[in-house]
UniProtKB/TrEMBL annotation:
It comes from the Bacteria. One of its GO terms (molecular function) is proton-transporting ATP synthase activity, rotational mechanism. It is found in: Cell membrane; Endomembrane system. This is ATP synthase subunit b. F-type ATPases have 2 components, F(1) - the catalytic core - and F(0) - the membrane proton channel. F(1) has five subunits: alpha(3), beta(3), gamma(1), delta(1), epsilon(1). F(0) has three main subunits: a(1), b(2) and c(10-14). The alpha and beta chains form an alternating ring which encloses part of the gamma chain. F(1) is attached to F(0) by a central stalk formed by the gamma and epsilon chains, while a peripheral stalk is formed by the delta and b chains. Residues 66-123 form a coiled coil. Component of the F(0) channel, it forms part of the peripheral stalk, linking F(1) to F(0). The b'-subunit is a diverged and duplicated form of b found in plants and photosynthetic bacteria.
Amino acid sequence: MATETHGAESASGMPQLDPSTYSNQIFWLVLALVAIYLLLSRVALPRIGAVLAERQGAITNDIAAAEELKLKAAEAEKAYDKALADARAEAAEITAETKASMQAELDAALAKADAEIAEQQKESAARIGEIRDSATANVEAVAKDTAEALVAHLGGQADSGQIAGVVSSKMGGR
């Protein structure tokens, strides 16, 4: 009994294992594979390919943009270095001009001061000469008066002309 039940089950069992249905199974397998192939080749793979191409294009564009930005950065750095060098040169030039201007002003002020000092020296020398001449004249007059007073005090009569000549000769000898 158990065998009969088992034999009936195997005849009505799994249809995939029944060799009489192999041709139908192969037909539907081929039809399913063709449908999957057509679905993949016409719909899914083009979309995937488009996404991959878009991604590759974005990567290529990003790399190109990065290279362009790198070149611009290098150019900007060169421009910055040039501007910095120009600014330093201009600062050095301004410093040199300012230094030269200040030196010229200082030289002019020193020359003016030297001229004023020389003028004052001339004036001082002239005043000293006048004072010396005046003092000499005063000393000579005082010497004459003193000599006349001494001669008169000693009891003599002195000749003013003779005393003036002696005092002048003594004063002129100095």
